Amino acid sequence: MNKIFFLIFLAIGIPLIYAQHSEKELKEIYKQIEKVYSKPDSAMIIANRFLPKLQGDNRGLADLHLYISQCYTDAGQQEEALQHAKQANIFALNTSNYELIARTSGLLATQYRAMKLYTKAKNLLRSGILDAEKISDKDMRVWVKACFLEEYAMNLAVEKKYDSAVIYNHNALNMLSQCKAKWSGVKLRYAVAYVGLGDNYIKKNELDSAEYYLNKVAPISKGTYMSSYAKGTSAIKLSLIYSRRKQYQRAIDTLKSVERSIDSDLNSTKVELYGYLSQNYKAISDFKNYIKYNEIYSTLKNKLSNEERKAIEKSFQMIEEEVVNESKKSIFSRNVTYFTISFSIIFIGFLLFYYRRKRKNEKIYFQNYIKTLENKSKEQSDEETAAKTIPKASYITEIHKDTELQILKHLENFEKSEKYTDPSVSLSSIATDFKTNTRYLSEVINKHRQKNFKAYLNELRVDYISKKILTDPLLRKYKISALAEASGFSSAESFSKTFKKITGILPSVFIENISAQINEKK
């Protein structure tokens, strides 16, 4: 996935560099690099040779450093790749080209993820989305934002936050649906999102959903320059689904169908394909083909870089364990005594009584909170009017009335912006954005929102995710940890505790009541 993310971004790079050097001159540079692009060492030598010629051209240097970074990535030299990605970002930041800035930020975030620096990667992606907002072309703006959302999903996936990753995958697809352009980069971005969804659903053991999205990859990427890579990647993941279902011949047929379409044998995707083929042949006791493909897999794997080899071994281990441990089930016999049955009946009866009473109270809390949300929406316009016409007696001592009104206006904009879902938001960061101090801001929140800053921020986040859950059926299917991440909380435990404090019920209960309410209306 690193490779496809890098190359899709690089694909839009060439037409972007045009400061001190002509487009013709720069295209000639990249033409020479691309002739040897499959040989990272040669490409690096050529790319480095052109660096002195581009001195003073920040745009040209940014793009060239990106190419060099990718060459080092392909050569398995991750540290060098990261350094050149950083250089690319530095040169881009010295331009006013927000498209280039966003692009280098995204690629640097990819390198951080490859180095397992997930916090750095996610922070950079958040700032990159803000830079992307400044891109004038709408199609390019939504495309770049979709790239950032998908890369964010990849970071969540490697952290094993699969529910959260799926949400960001779907957000990326929703963003892409707003893009009217038909260029290949849009199709490839769809393919990446579908592969990401397929992979995350496999990890969640939701194989039908995984198969649905993976089957979309080949058609959407058809005719693009990375179609064979996308098709090969999706076929490998589909074969894993079929292997889990014990459909080993189907897995073999799927892998064989793309074997010749993957360009080079010395390609991590094709090496992975040979490994999966060998294990599926082993599962159907075709030891002749098992030995054949296992030897190919072992030979080619040893020629790859250490990083690529480790990634393949980790992926390959999944199917190997499933084949080796196939159909290991234990059968337990139970002898139930009269005493156990009697005790169980009494205990179940008590639980039913407690459960019904608890559910009744939870429903009351749910209905009261829904009314509170409705009232807040109705009162919002009244609060805005009131903020403009506050009686003199209500102004806070020591704060000039114009200053107070200005802070209130900023608060209203902040509440509409959804910036409060950023986990890094703090009283000091908001005060800086409002161009005021923390004491004034804290006093205004206490006076006009009747709560301290922490309670104010938590209520905004809980109200936000509650409305999202009410209107988006998809969110009701995911784990609490995913909802916590989407609303800006640091952990599922913190989110659940705060949610119950504000609403009177846990998030899971809130979702259950929504489902029950919908069923009652049918």
Architecture blueprint of SSEs:
Elements: H1 2-11, H2 23-35, H3 40-50, H4 58-74, H5 78-93, H6 98-114, H7 118-132, H8 138-158, H9 162-176, H10 184-203, H11 207-214, H12 217-221, H13 227-244, H14 248-256, H15 268-283, H16 287-301, H17 306-324, H18 338-388, H19 401-417, H20 427-434, H21 438-448, H22 453-471, H23 480-487, H24 492-503, H25 507-521
Description of the molecule:
The structure is a single chain. The chain contains 25 helices and no strands. The two termini are 43 Å apart. The longest helix is centred in the last third of the chain and has 51 residues. With 522 residues, it is mainly alpha-helical. Helix 3 runs antiparallel to helix 4, helix 4 runs antiparallel to helix 5 and helix 10 packs parallel to helix 13. Helices cover 74% and strands 0% of the residues.
Tag the structure with descriptive keywords.
single chain; 74% helix; flat
Q: Helices and strands, in N-to-C order?
A: HHHHHHHHHHHHHHHHHHHHHHHHH
Show unreliable segments. Answer: 1-22, 322-334, 387-395
Radius of gyration: 28 Å
**Taking all residues together, what is the mean pLDDT?**
79
- What's the overall geometry? flat
Please indicate the percent range of residues in DSSP E strands (runs of 2 or more).
under 5%
Number of continuous helical runs: 25
Head-to-tail CA distance between termini: 43 Å
SS content category: mainly alpha
Approximately how much helix is present in the residues? over 70%
Total strands? 0
Q: Major β-sheet, in short? A: none
